[in-house]
Amino acid sequence: MIVCKSRPVEALLLGLGLLGLVACGEGQPPATPPPLPVGLLTAQVQPYPQDAELTAQVEGTREVEVRARVAGILLAQSYKEGAAVKAGDLLFRIDPAPYEIAVALAKAQLAQEQARADQAAAEAARQGKLLAERATSAKEAADARSAEAAATAARDIAAAKVRSAELDLSYCEVRAPIAGFTGRLARSEGSLVSPGADSLLTTVVQREQVWVRFGLSEQDFQRLFAGDAAAATAAKVEVLDAAGQPLPLVGKVNFVAAQVEARLGTIQMRAEFPNGGGTLLPGQFTRVRLAGRPLPAAVVVPTSCLLQSAQGRFVYVLGNGNVAQVRPVQLAFVNGPQAVLLAGLKSGERVVLDNLVKVRPGAPLVPRAPAAK
Q1: How many domains does the chain fold into?
Q2: Which of 266, 295, 324 finishes a domain?
Q3: Which one, of 176, 187, 203, lies nearest residue 282 by Cα?
Q4: Greatest CA separation found in the chain?
Q5: Residue 9: pLDDT above 50?
Q6: CATH code: domain of residue 342
Q7: Over the stretch 21-51, which tens digit does the pLDDT of each residue have?
Q8: What is the domain extent for residue 260?
Q9: Could you give the CA distance from residue 9 to residue 3 in angstroms, rounded to a whole number?
């Protein structure tokens, strides 16, 4: 009976003890959160090379269409498709028979007109002698001189027709206009060819030297060369292979457009490359790397550590006392996973790389130990 009566008293004493403990805890400051572990990058201010990778197309320095210049039957093909030819090599032969006849006819007409011109000249000389002896009238002498001039002109016309007929005959042999590599045969033997839209027979392309054409955006042109076409002409340009590595070819920019291509919004450029080994083929698409002016002083940081606020872009750095500090920065451009900064950071400052969602200005930080290799 005595034990049962003491239980309310014990409960009261226990409650008073708990209230005392709570009252004592209210006077203590809240616990400080532990420093946040973060990865760091030491900033380095140094020159930064600028470049741009662009899609380009290869073309031969000279690409000539071989066309028929006279009408006729294509009798023979004298080359192998895709083979190398020299300037002047015979490629095709067009039936020359009609043109041989035309040459013979023109020569006969020339002989006829030459005889008439000789006769007119002799008559003019005779009339001139008679006029001097007062044995003929002045009118007859003048008529003789006019007839001589007309006969001479007719002879010259006949001579020109001979040259024209001989020229047409020479066109029956279609020869390579330049040295290079022949293209696909456009018209087969036995076809009727003629000058005009359907006159194409084949092409000849020079590929020991090739041109690579590409377009650079207005923004990249300003970034790489500050809008200076002379600097663009002196720029280094490389052709890249499928793995993105430069080929052992030294190129030189030989053309920069004076205006922006309105349809594409780009400035067209062209570079010339030696291609003795035939590495580049006219018509193929490739990638080129165009080097521009380097930035004199820049800091490269991962794009992931670049943050944005209402005041602009910033990064967190590890300040004095190992606390986070906000550092406003000036962004030059983003190059894939890297951000290139023009101002805001000094060499030696440590930029916070991760845990950025939890970082706040003034928050304690601790550098994370590098992972064991």
Answers
A1: 4
A2: 295
A3: 203
A4: 188
A5: no
A6: 2.40.420.20
A7: 444 445 455 566 788 899 899 999 999 888 8
A8: 51-59+207-295
A9: 11
Mark whether 166 and 268 lie in a shared domain. no
CA dist 67 and 74 (Å) reads 12
pLDDT, tens digit, 9 for 90 and up, residues 213-263: 999 999 889 889 988 888 999 999 999 998 889 998 888 999 999 889 888
Phi, psi of 166 (to 5 degrees): -65, -35
The residue from 295, 313, 331 where one domain ends is: 295
Quick one: tokens of 94?
Answer: 């067009």
Residues 178, 219: one domain?
no
Q: Is the pLDDT of residue 373 over 80?
A: no
Angle, helix 138-170 to helix 97-132, in steps of 10 degrees = 160
pTM of the complete model beyond 0.70: no
Q: Which amino acid makes up residue 326?
A: V
Distance, in Å, from the CA atom of 238 to the CA atom of 246, rounded to the nearest integer, reads 6
Cα 233 from Cα 231, distance rounded (Å): 5
Residue 114 contacts by C-beta under 8 Å, 6 or more apart in sequence? Answer: 155, 158
3-class SS string, the chain = CHHHHHHHHHHHHHHHHHHHHHHHHCCCCCCCCCCEEECEEECCCEEECCEEEEEEEEEEEEEEEEECCCCEEEEEECCCCCCEECCCCEEEEECCHHHHHHHHHHHHHHHHHHHHHHHHHHHHHHHHHHHHCCCCCHHHHHHHHHHHHHHHHHHHHHHHHHHHHHHHHHCCEEECCCCEEECCCCCCCCCEECCCCCCEEEEEEEEEEEEEEEEEEHHHHHHHHCCCHHHHHCCEEEEECCCCCECCCCEEEEEECCCCECCCCEEEEEEEEECCCCCCCCCCEEEEEEECCCEEEEEEEEHHHCEEECCEEEEEEECCCCEEEEEECEEEEEECCEEEEEECCCCCCEEECCCCCCCCCCCEEEECCCCCC
pLDDT tens digits for range 55-113? 999 998 889 999 999 999 999 999 999 899 999 999 999 999 999 999 999 999 999 99
Answer whether residue 16 is part of any domain.
Answer: no
